[in-house]
Amino acid sequence: MRLLRLAKIVSVGLRFGLDRMVLDADASGRLARVWNVPFFWRRFAEPRAVRLRRALESLGPIFVKFGQMLSTRRDLLPPDLADELALLQDRVPPFPTEQALAVLEGFYGKPVDEVFRDFERTPVASASVAQVHFARLPDGTEVAVKVLRPGIERVIAHDLALMEAAAILLEKLWPEGRRLKPREVVAEFAKYLADELDLMREAANCSQLRRNFTDSSLLIVPEVYWDWCGRSVMVMERMRGTPISQIATLRAQGTDLSKLSRAGVEIFFTQVFRDGFFHADMHPGNIFVHADGRYIALDFGIMGTLTDVDKNYLATNFLAFFKRDYKRVAQAHIDAGWVPAKTRVDEFESAIRAVCEPIFDKPLKDISFGKTLLRLFQTARRFEMEVQPQLVLLQKTLLNIEGLGRQLDPELDLWKTAKPFLERWMDEQMGWRAVLRGVREEAPAWAGTLPQLPRLVHHALTEPSRQQAAIREELARLARAQRRQGRLVALIGVLLAVLVGIELVRLLG
């Protein structure tokens, strides 16, 4: 079975000319000339990026997902490949309803009609890992039921094994292979898929995001019904709205598209800088618009998290960039520990300036946040910076938000929308509000520590003398042991000398 699958992969690769992408790396061209002899009949009118996308689509949903993940690794891929792979859509035919019912009955231990008041047999959405059916709970609540595709674990394990084998070959046969880190990329993909296969993890992500946006005037997140959820089944509130890609319909409904585009930017920066927890799969298929103009978020399989260090890094860099303070940008990388401490700030500053100054010839509204962040990553890699996975996810999401916002409103000035938010956040982190927040957060710990303070002070004052006494005692013990060993060695030496003397007398006498 694996050999047949491998044969298909090789066949598809040859049909779309993927071998030429490897052969083109040979500067001499000799290998390409020899290889092309048996394939002289092949002609390719389409660019390599289009051929790669079509090949992945031909190989099935797991390879489509792999291409989607690769599109986020713009630190590794050339821009033409990354841009084309970003067009991949995870749309596959639904699996038979009988299989979905079998999964549900296996999980609940009873027929679906005894679990739900109604269960729609026709799925409303289908992807490579799961599909969604609408239903009603016993109390009449309308829900969406996400069901894991049967046997998907086996398919994934099978294709991952082939990808790992291909990655090893790529590293050995292609001069550029080692730089692209194919085995590391496949391992990252395997982790990404493992997360998507656990619907309880997705349910937890959804629940967290909903809690972060409780009573929000900008974003609606469905409620999770935990009593009906498991690793292979997720049940959440049914959402009603218009897909954000249907711009003509939104305009006909009287939706203010300019306001909607600005709200999308505010939602993103709120998730990133307030919560450090953001939806990392914000393509148009996962976003609806409610009748009241609020966004509706769906599909929570991929979420990004940021630490306070990450958030400070991003805010500092964005603000410094648009003030053209490249020294501050360079210093922020070193302070965050993402560039070696030995890096010369002036050299790093000069490299950043060379890359970023041309950007500012454009009006601010035409400057891409996502591409600016990408350029920053590419420059930093020359100074031994390993791009952080959470920042790669963030950059991908930022590109999605930018593209979506400018599709809704071509005049969207992302910087003008985001700058006040960033400045307010930085003020909260570094101003008097930050001091008050720190006091509030530490107060419970202080309440427990203050009564112990006299004892702790006494302990701290007396401990050094105790430690010194213990050290002196240990040194004295070691000295005594050394003297004993010295006497023992001397005794052994004397005995050996006596034995040698006796033996010499015996030999000579």
Anisotropy-based shape: extended
Q: What gyration radius follows from the Cα positions, in whole Å? A: 32 Å
User: What number is the mean pLDDT?
Assistant: 79
Largest sheet: 5 strands, antiparallel
Uncertain spans, ≥5 residues at pLDDT below 50? none
Give the N-terminus to C-terminus distance in angstroms: 89 Å
- The tally of beta strands, per DSSP, is 11
Helix count equals 22
SS-based class: alpha+beta
Beta fraction of the residues? 5-15%
Helical residue percent band: 55-70%
Oligomer classification: single chain
Family: Belongs to the ABC1 family. UbiB subfamily. Belongs to the protein kinase superfamily. ADCK protein kinase family.
Function: Is probably a protein kinase regulator of UbiI activity which is involved in aerobic coenzyme Q (ubiquinone) biosynthesis.
Keywords: ATP-binding, Cell inner membrane, Cell membrane, Kinase, Membrane, Nucleotide-binding, Transferase, Transmembrane, Transmembrane helix, Ubiquinone, Ubiquinone biosynthesis
Protein name: Probable protein kinase UbiB
